[in-house]
Structures are given as structure tokens and as C-alpha cells.
Amino acid sequence: MSSTALSHLPPALQTPLFFRLDLRSQRLVALTDVMQTPLYWLDEPRAPWPAQLPDALRLPIEQLLANGHGGKITVRFASQLWHIALAHEQDGFWLICLQNLRQEPIADLALQLPRLSQMASQQQYAPLLEALKESLGADRLILWHYQANGDLGSEQLTPVFTLGVEALYPIRGDSRYIRALRTRKALSFSEAAHQPMLSNHLYLTSAGVRSRLDGALLEQDKLFGVLSLEYLNPTPLSEEMLQLVRSSAQLLGHWQP
Fold first, then answer.
1. What is the pLDDT of residues 158-184, one digit of tens each?
2. Dihedral through CA 172, CA 189, CA 214, CA 61, nearest 10?
3. Which of 23, 157, 167, 160 shows the shortest CA–CA distance to 88?
4. Is the pTM higher than 0.70?
């Protein structure tokens, strides 16, 4: 499956598609009706699979194959969510299930706020953050606790809750970043690893974060936390997305995970 084919996707597939992978020959065979199988999934039959996939899809699939047990992953690629399940059958054979779910239109994001508000009123903060991450199609979510003066010095940010993040440590925030966040209440970044205000966020490069949305947790203009949603692929960030993050950050109040 080439990145060129993926850039011209048909409407989202609600019906799961099944394939069998022979890892020894690195060939993928469709088990579902060929007429229902998108050509972009098998458009390079002479190339080894999954080596032919774009890195954003290939790397997580290779990790599941390497562990020998398989599993389920959700990958955001080409502005769509791909749900992929891999199960080891026998010897070098694997069963693969692919489902592409349509993401909600950006215009419908405002409809998420009442649902998130209800979760907050019931103090269901962890499910709130999971729902927010899913609604915005983010790959990672981080809730930071802010201290004007911490063990690392001034402007310390300490991760207290994460989704899709393996390991993260406290960092010192840039003073310009903190001021802008306090004033504007929400910020968006493209090419996040190269933004001067995020220069202290060294993990962005190693994690491959491309785009990012930040919302300020405030009480009477006093910053006490930051909500970050991160994307591993370049993602257009709209004002509607920024507003949803801004509103969700305020719903969290003083929640301490």
C-alpha cells in the first residue's frame, strides 16, 4: 500500500476487511471479497509486506509482529483512523483485520462539549480525556501540572496523566510559552519540534510529534496546569479544535490524577 494511494482514500469502510500474511514470503492475501477490498491496500503485490507501507503505518505493525503475540492498534494517517488487529495463526501465518472508521467532521466538534461537560459534572475526568483525544483524533494526550518554581527551577511542567505516551519526565517551560498560554488560554503548533516556544520540550523530536494543541488550566488567571494533545502526522489545526481543547481544560478544574 503506497502513500500515494492512501492520499486518495474512498469513503470510510465500516465493514472489516480480513487478510492473511505469510511472514516468510512477506505476501499479503485478501480473505474478504476482492470486489470489496480497496486496491490501495494491495496496490504493490510484488513488494514485501509490511515493508511497502508508509512509516506511520509500517512501524506499529512491525512492532506487533515482532512481539509474536499480535494485538490491536489505532493509527491516524491521511486524516483518517485505521483500526488494525493482528492475530498469530500458526508458523509464519498471521490473520489481519483492517477497519477504517470515518472521523467526525470538524463542524461537529461543538457537539462534543455537552457530553464532556456531563462527564466533568460526574467527576469522570479520565473518561473525559479519553473522549477528547478520540474526538480530536490525537495520537497522544498529556496533562501537565504547572509550578512557578519547582525542583528543576522556574516554570516547571510535570506530567501527571498521559494517554498514548510511554515515558515522560518533568521539564522547564519557556517563559514566553507560559505567558502566551496564560494570556490566550490555548495555543496550536505545527512542526512542534521546531517551535522556539517549545524548545525545552526535548521529547517532541524523539517522539516524532508534528502538531500540537495546548489548553491552559486556569483559576482567576493563575495557571496551574496544561492540557496537551499531540499528533504524530502533520495535522491542520482549526479554531474549532482549539476551542474544544480550551473548554475541556477548564472542565478539568483542580483534578489530581
1. 999 999 998 899 999 889 999 999 999
2. -90
3. 23
4. no
Burial category of 166 from C-beta neighbours within 10 Å (exposed 0-12, middle 13-18, buried 19 and up)? exposed
Output the nine-digit C-alpha cell for 136: 480530536
> Grid coordinates representing 152?
528543576
- pLDDT tens digits along 225-249: 999 999 998 788 888 889 999 999 9
Chain centre distance of CA 40: 23
All cell numbers assigned to 110: 461543538
All cell numbers assigned to 4: 500515494
Tell me how crowded residue 75 is: count the other CB atoms within 10 A of its CB.
19
Confidence of residue 10 (pLDDT cuts 50, 70, 90): very low
Chain-centroid distance of CA 233 in Å reads 9
Q: Which three cell numbers stand for residue 71?
A: 494485538
- Letter string b/e over residues 203-213, b meaning 16 or more CB atoms within 10 A of that residue's CB: bbeebebbbbb
Q: How far apart are CA 21 and CA 30, in angstroms?
A: 9
